[in-house]
Structures are given as C-alpha cells and as structure tokens.
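tokens incoming
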C-alpha cells in the first residue's frame, strides 16, 4: 500500500487502511477517481463502514456512480448516511430499488415531514385507501408485513439524510423526533389496516367494520419525541358503532372487545413478527390499566372507571404524554378529553410525590450492573433526570396553568420558563443538555438500528459517534476525548440543574437572589412544596425565609445549600418536621464555623442530616439540644459506639471535678443522652445491627447507673460511715443487653453489710443509697427533650414483687431462693447480670442465682406452670382491642414467643450444657440449634422474627419519640418504620407483609416446641 494513501486513510479515521485500500480498488469503483471517493469519505462518521456499503450498493445499483463522480457536492449526503448507519446501508443493499432516496429522487413521493402524507404513503404500501375512515389493506400476511416495513425504512432513510445533513443536529432534533413519531403512527395505521383485513377471516367483515379502535400513543411516541429505534408504547380503546352492521343493533361491548383484541394483536404481528424483512420495533401495551395482567383493549367507559377508582399516581404521570396516533380519530379525541382531568389533578393525590420518586428509583434500580456510568437515558445526569424533573413540574403547576399542558420535553421546558417556573438561564441549559443527549442517543441507535442507550467504549466507535453528532457547519473533527469530556460535563450539568430548577425558585420568593432566576409567586412556591411532600407549605416557606434572610455569611451559605437540602428533606417521611428541625439546629449552632462548612463540603454528612431529621423525631429532638453532634455525621468512625471503659473514665473525670451530686449527675446524664444519640445516628445510617444497637444502649445505661451509684454511696458516706455495699443487678432486656430506645431498666438491689456493721443500720443505709440512686437518674435534664425518656429503674422482678422489700441482703436472697422461689422467678433470673456495684458481692450473688436458674432437672409440673403463665400473659396483658398479629412483644410470633421458648430450653438444659448459659436471646437460640434442641432452620426463622420485631419496636420510638409495641397501620408511620428497618422508600407494604408472614411461621414453631402441639 502506498504510504501516502495509508496516511490519508488513517487521517480519515480508517481503523483498517489495508482493507480500505482493497475496497478502493474494487471493480465497482473502476473508473471513478479515487480522490473523489476519499473526499466523500471525509464526510463519513465511520469511513470503513461507508466504503464497504458503497462498494456493495454500486454492485446492485450502478446508477449511484454519478453521485460519487459528481464530487462532494452530490455525494456528501450518501457518505454521511452510509458511514452513520450500517443498518440503513444494508437495507438499501437488500432493496436497491429504493436507493433512489440517495439520489434525491423523492420529489415524486411524499417528503415525509407532513404526518398526513406519511400516513397516506404507508397505507398505499399495503394496498389500503387512505381516504376511507377505516382503511382496509389489500394484502395480508407476510407480503403485507414486508411491504409495510420496506416503505417505513425508505422514509427512515429520507429522514436520516436530512438529520445527518442538518447544520445543527440539536436544533433539528425536535423535528426529527416528531417525524419519527409520525412515521411510527403511520406504520401503526397501516398495520391496523392489515389487521382489519386479516380479522375478516375470523369475524364477519361487517362486524369488524363496525368496531372503532383508537391507538393511543404513550411515552415518546405520544409526545412526538421518538427515537430512531424504540419500543412504541400504546394503549388501545375500543368502541362499537352506535348502529351495528347492516343497520342492525349496536354490537355489545363484549363482542367489540373480542374484535378489538384481534385487531390489536394483528397490529403487533404486522410490525414485530419475524419475517424476511426485519421487524420494526416492539409495540408495548404494558402501560395499559392493570399492566400485563389487564385486558389488551378496553372500552372508553372501562378506561374512565379504572382511572377514577384504581389507578396509581405514576400512571397519571405516564398519561401526561397520551395522544391519539392511529385508528378511530374521534374516539381517540374523546379518550384524550376524558383522561386529561385525571392527569392534571394527580399532583394533589396523597402519595403523589412518593409514587413519582419510587418510579424514578425503579428506573435507576433496573440499570444492569456495570452500565450505570455508560447510560445516556437511565443513569445519573441522563435523559430520565431531565424528563422526570420537567414532568413533575408540569403536573405540579399545570393544575392551574394550562400553558404547561404540552407533551414533548423541549416545549415543556420553554413553557416552564415562559411561566416563570424555571429561570431563563437554567431553562436554556436544561434544553441544550437534553437535546445533546438525545442527539447522541439517536446517532448510537442509528448505526445498527438497535434499541440501546449505552455510550460505546471503543475508540473507533467513539470517534464515529463524535463525527456523526456534529453539524455540517462545525469546524474541525471532534475527537473521542472531546466527545467524552462534553458528555461528562453535560451529565454534571443535568444533575445540578435538577436541584436548581426544583428548589432555587422557592428561595426567590423570600430572598431576591438574582434577576436572571425565575421568581415563583408565593402561591406557586407553596404549590410546589405541597406537591413535593411538604404538608404545611406556608410553614415551610417561613422556615426558608428565616434561614435565608439577611446578608450574613450564614444566610448566603444557606441560600447556596438549601436547594440541595430541601430535596433531601423532601425524600424523608416528614419533610416539614425535618425542615423545622434543620432550622432549629442551624439556629442553635449560629455562626459556628465548622457547621455550614461541613454541609457545604461533605455531601454525605448533609444528606445524612436531612435523612435523620425528616425520618426520626427522636434524633431531631436530641440534635436540637446537642447540635454539636452534627459533626459526627462527616465520618463513620465518629458514630462507632463508645466502649463502657471509655465512658466510665469520662464519668470519673466529671465526678472528680464536681462536689455537688446534682451537678455531677447532670453531666453523667448528658453523657448517656449523647451516647443514645450516637447509637441512633449510627443505627439510622445502617452502621449497626440489631444486637449491637441493644448492647450500645445497654452500655450507656450501665455507665450512667454506675456513676449514679458512686454518687449515692458518696452521699451516704458523707453522713456517716459506710455500712454496706450495694449491687445493682440488671434483669430482663437490660440483663440481656437487648434494650431499645427509652427502655426502662429492670433491676434488683442486693446489699451485704460490711464487717462489724449493724445489720439493721446497714439495711436502712442500703435503702437510702437505692433511693438516692433512683432520684439521681430520674431527675429530668434541662432543656427537656420530649422524645427522650429518663432512665427508670424498675425493681418489680425482685422476690415477692412489689410487696417485697426494695433491697435485700445477700443472705436474705439466699434464704428466699432456698425456701420460696417459684419457677417464674428462676426464669426471670436467666437474664440476671451484674450492672453496678461491688465486684465481690457480684460474684457471690451470681454464684447463688446460678443454682436457681440452671436446675439439674425441671419437673413436668414446672413446665406446665410456665406454659400456664405464658398463656395468662397473652390473655391478660395484651392491650384490649390490639391485633395479636401486629403486637411485636406479646403478639403472634413476637418477642415473647421467641424469648419464652428459649428460656424454657435454658431451664431444661443449661445445667448440662454451659453454652446455653447466656443472658442474651439470640446467642442462646444459636447454642440450642448447635446442640440439636431446635432444628437449625427453625432457629434461624425464630431469630429473624425476633430481630425484626425488635427493629420495629425501636423504629416506633425513633420515628415518633413514643414507645409502641404495635406494627403501625398508618401508612406514614409504617413507611417510617420500614425505612428504619432498612427497606427502600415506598416499601411499607413489603415490610408489613414480610412481618405478618414471618411471625405467623414463627408462631407455628413456637406452638410445636413450647406447647407441644401443632398450630
């Protein structure tokens, strides 16, 4: 190969110059100046593809030689098309009689830009008369399908030539997308004509003629912004004529639906079935009422009933683009009129924002792994971000502003800008970004006419894409690097614009930020806030005003941050509460230098803050009184639970500096409050599992009790000599380190007089110490936090219960357990654990209770007594009217069922198996499974039920600040609990169903293992 030719081919973008030179020497090009071919290849996005297609095509249609010989003025369009679309080159090779489209000889044919002309042309291709109201094709079966598809692709070639030759592809984009939509509509009209002819073989022709079928375009086709290759989303509406066939009575709806279904099926067959000429695109009717499970066609009345009673909010968002595109035009127009009121009232529906956000999440979640960064359509900063933003604003403001009731995206952006809902600058950026992404999508699809939205990765493919997406007046050739850089820049712009477009105008209603930006009226701003999930838009506007008013640095930074923060807050369960809490936290921190800097510089910290403020009353209240804790959100390490030893060291340091017990104890309680907040933040961030949360909360309580006991003993000693040592024994959930937010602490008090002390005086002093301990812990902090509960010490599990002495000596405990202990008390001692006090006394007391809680043998009578008590607890302690299936503690398969079963196994087997000697439920259950006392699958089921019930119980407190043992029924409460339990937004029903199913199965296991009978 001549070096000069090789260099020129490489310069043109050839990836295989040796192969290209062989094609240049092909017989089909004989006699044509190679220089003219090379000049033409300079216009081809992919010169190798163009050259191959040209050589093959000249072999089938030699007349095209004149175009090449005429130089670039005549051949430019040929090379642009053949180098941009391998698929259309193949089409022209297979049908050389249509290659005259390259010669510009369509003057005698419809030019394609007029929808009516497109419809007429494709109807004539299948032998139908376009002048009739319901055209019927003159051919059927595969010949009709082939004729339709060939005619369609001929018009596609004509459009592609004009598109690729546009001075500005982005300017031409709306016209190209509209024509593609009209071409698809014409294809469906011709397919319906074929289907009518075919249906006459299965139904009386007069009945087929008496049925009106309207094809409603959805999505991009409905909006006249279709791609080169895309599914065409449709909905079918059917209606029999007022007067039936032959002047007889009107067909009944059932018969009309049967015929309509046959017609709709025939449309899809004509367009999509396999054949000699490849299918065009898939006709997708899954947006119809009830989706795939619903009937393919419905009457107009049936559609109206469905949308008035059953449709979900996202369905109305889809109907925003609904347009009659084929079939019975009058019926289609009535459908549009009937549906429009539903569409424009949808933003006022409960859960509207949740449904829109859930739909966007579903789109994102369905992106295959590894494709997100290459997605033009679905990924972050892609086309869907533009479309969802624009559609939501249309639905919000279109209720009162009819100028926004347009279907296509570019027109909607212009209307939003004209109405002041988007700033002019932002609208221009959004529009240009959208058009550019669509041009890239078109060029990628055009090459092989395949439905794809992925950016190519190969350098040759990127080079071809860069060239095909340039206008004819662009100077120079774009490189792959330039293409990639512009695409990435566009994605970033789209992501940023979403925040600006949604929320910046809200700020402009209360602060004069910039004359360029749109200024919503207060009413429009409140309307937008309401549609985005804020229940008190006026209150929200007051908070925004308070945060952004003035000229201070803080107000300026808040104006920069709020567009993002308002969006994150809107994604929470309670945006209003979250915004109020954010205002209070911001006001509490004032001008603290690190706070706004943290929010500005750490997106993760800012998003976490918005999340917890909008999803947890407990956290919001605690952050209001401890706003400095916001600093923890910047790193996971700050949210790790503080070990007991570290907390005790800090408490000792505090106590050493304060002589006043009340002042010292306040600092101890502040440490406890701080650690509860730290645990809740880590819990909501998904950094802790259920057992770790319980241990962290128990540790905070234990540290506080130890500090309080030290102060109580010091006070007693200040009034005279210390006569006794006191031990606080944790019981119940506190003993198992399984407590939740705001749980009381079940305890017992043990004392042992010091050597030589008077026993009665020691007993009195023990009472004083215990009384002081309780008073120190229960004195509320100031400022008080409504959602926070003081640490109540509950000693009702002591011997003889409430009627017994509050504190006993070790000897008294020994005597009582030797003579009077009941089986329920042995069961309660399974959770006993030293919490605070004398170490030696703790060792002796635990040695004593081990003899009681781990009996060598559990008599059958005791087993029966445990079962009787459990039944009594269920019948007497379950609140009146409570649904047992939703009560997480005492209800079916809840905490009580799992814990009583585990404790029965411990009483029966712990003496022989030390692995069962633990105060925690799940380790004991795991040990029972290892020992074969419970089948492993049943143990795992019980553990899952116990864990979920514990999560729900804690979530109730975290969400509302109030304790509740019920799985909520309210949708908002259930959504909040579901999110706390780790479910994605919008999955409250999934949590509910999982909980009810799981606990039902857990109850069956409990019945078998505890009661010895089947459920």
């Amino acid at each position: 190969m001549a070096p000069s030719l090789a260099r020129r081919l490489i310069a043109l973008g050839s990836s295989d110059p040796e192969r290209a030179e062989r094609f240049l020497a092909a017989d089909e090009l004989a006699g044509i100046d190679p220089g003219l071919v090379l000049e033409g290849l300079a216009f081809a996005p992919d010169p190798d593809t163009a050259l191959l297609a040209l050589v093959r095509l000249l072999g089938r249609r030699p007349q095209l030689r004149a175009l090449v010989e005429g130089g670039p003025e005549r051949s430019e369009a040929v090379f642009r098309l053949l180098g941009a679309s391998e698929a259309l080159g193949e089409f022209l090779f297979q049908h050389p009689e249509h290659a005259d489209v390259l010669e510009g000889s369509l003057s005698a044919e419809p030019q394609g830009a007029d929808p009516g002309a497109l419809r007429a042309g494709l109807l004539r291709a299948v032998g139908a008369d376009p002048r009739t109201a319901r055209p019927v094709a003159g051919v059927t079966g595969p010949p009709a399908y082939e004729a339709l598809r060939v005619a369609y692709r001929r018009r596609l070639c004509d459009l592609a030539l004009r598109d690729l030759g546009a001075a500005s592809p982005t300017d031409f984009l709306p016209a190209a997308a509209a024509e593609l939509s009209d071409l698809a509509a014409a294809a469906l009209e011709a397919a319906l004509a074929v289907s009518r002819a075919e249906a006459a073989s299965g139904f009386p022709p007069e009945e087929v003629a008496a049925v009106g079928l309207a094809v409603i375009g959805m999505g991009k086709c409905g909006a006249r912004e279709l791609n080169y290759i895309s599914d065409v989303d449709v909905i079918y509406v059917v209606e029999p004529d007022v007067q039936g066939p032959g002047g007889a009575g009107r067909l009944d709806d059932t018969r009309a639906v049967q015929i309509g279904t046959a017609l709709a099926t025939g449309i899809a067959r004509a367009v999509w079935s396999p054949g000699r000429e490849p299918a065009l695109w898939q006709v997708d009717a899954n947006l119809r009422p009830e989706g795939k499970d619903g009937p393919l066609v419905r009457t107009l009345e049936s559609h109206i009933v469905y949308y008035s009673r059953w449709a979900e909010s996202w369905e109305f968002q889809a109907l925003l683009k609904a347009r009659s595109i084929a079939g019975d035009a009058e019926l289609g127009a009535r459908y549009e009129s009937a549906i429009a009121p539903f569409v424009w009232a949808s933003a006022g529906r409960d859960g509207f924002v949740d449904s829109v956000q859930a739909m966007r999440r579903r789109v994102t979640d369905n992106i295959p792994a590894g494709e997100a960064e290459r997605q033009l359509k679905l990924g972050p900063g892609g086309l869907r971000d533009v479309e969802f933003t624009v559609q939501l604003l249309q639905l919000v403001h279109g209720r009162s502003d009819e100028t926004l009731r347009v279907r296509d995206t570019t027109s909607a952006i212009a209307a939003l800008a004209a109405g002041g809902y988007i700033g002019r600058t932002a609208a221009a950026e959004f529009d240009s970004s959208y058009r550019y992404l669509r041009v890239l999508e078109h060029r990628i699809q055009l090459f092989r006419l395949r439905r794809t939205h992925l950016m190519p990765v190969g350098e040759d493919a990127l080079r071809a894409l860069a060239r095909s997406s340039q206008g004819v007046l662009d100077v120079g050739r774009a490189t792959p690097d330039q293409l990639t850089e512009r695409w990435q820049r566009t994605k970033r712009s789209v992501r940023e614009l979403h925040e600006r477009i949604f929320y910046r105008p809200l700020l402009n209603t209360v602060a004069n930020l910039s004359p360029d930006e749109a200024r919503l009226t207060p009413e429009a701003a409140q309307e937008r806030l309401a549609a985005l999930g804020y229940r008190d838009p006026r209150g929200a506007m007051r908070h925004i005003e308070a945060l952004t008013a003035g000229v201070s640095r803080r107000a300026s930074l808040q104006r920069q941050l709020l567009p993002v923060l308002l969006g994150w807050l809107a994604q929470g369960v309670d945006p209003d509460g979250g915004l109020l809490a954010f205002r209070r936290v911001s006001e509490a921190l004032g001008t603290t230098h690190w706070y706004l800097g943290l929010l500005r510089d750490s997106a993760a910290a800012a998003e976490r803050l918005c999340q917890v403020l909008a999803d947890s009353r407990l956290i919001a209240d605690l952050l209001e009184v401890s706003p400095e804790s916001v600093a923890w959100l910047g790193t996971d390490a700050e949210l790790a639970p503080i070990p007991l030893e570290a907390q005790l060291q800090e408490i000792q340091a505090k106590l050493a500096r304060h002589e006043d017990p009340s002042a010292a104890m306040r600092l101890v309680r502040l440490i406890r409050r701080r650690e509860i907040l730290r645990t809740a933040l880590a819990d909501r961030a998904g950094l802790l599992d259920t057992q770790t949360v319980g241990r962290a909360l128990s540790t905070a309580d234990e540290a506080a009790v130890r500090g309080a006991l030290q102060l109580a003993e010091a006070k007693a000693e200040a009034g005279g000599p210390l006569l006794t040592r006191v031990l606080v024994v944790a019981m119940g959930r506190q003993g198992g380190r399984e407590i939740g937010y705001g749980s009381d602490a079940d305890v017992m008090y043990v004392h042992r007089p010091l050597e030589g002390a008077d026993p009665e005086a020691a007993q009195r002093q023990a009472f004083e110490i215990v009384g002081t301990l309780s008073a120190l812990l229960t004195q509320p902090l100031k400022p008080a936090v409504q959602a926070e509960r003081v640490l109540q010490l509950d000693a009702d599990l002591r011997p003889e219960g409430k009627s017994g002495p509050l504190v006993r000596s070790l000897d008294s405990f020994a005597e009582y357990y030797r003579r009077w202990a009941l089986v329920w008390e042995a069961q309660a001692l399974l959770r006993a654990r030293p919490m605070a006090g004398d170490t030696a006394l703790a060792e002796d007391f635990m040695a004593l209770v081990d003899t009681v809680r781990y009996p060598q043998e559990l008599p059958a009578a005791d087993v029966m007594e445990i079962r009787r008590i459990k039944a009594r607890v269920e019948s007497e302690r379950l609140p009146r009217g409570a649904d047992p299936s939703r009560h997480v503690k005492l209800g079916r398969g809840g905490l009580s069922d799992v814990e009583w079963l585990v404790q029965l196994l411990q009483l029966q087997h712990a003496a022989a198996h030390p692995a069962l000697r633990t105060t925690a439920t799940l380790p004991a259950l795991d040990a029972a499974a290892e020992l074969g006392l419970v089948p492993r699958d049943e143990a795992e089921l019980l553990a899952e039920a116990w864990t979920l019930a514990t999560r729900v119980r804690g979530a109730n407190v975290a969400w509302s600040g109030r304790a509740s043992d019920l799985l909520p029924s309210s949708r908002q409460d259930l959504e909040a609990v579901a999110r706390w339990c780790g479910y994605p937004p919008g999955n409250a029903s999934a949590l509910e169903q999982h909980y009810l199913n799981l606990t039902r199965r857990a109850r069956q296991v409990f019945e078998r293992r505890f009661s010895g009978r089947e459920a």
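note: Confidence is low (pLDDT under 50) at residues 105-112.
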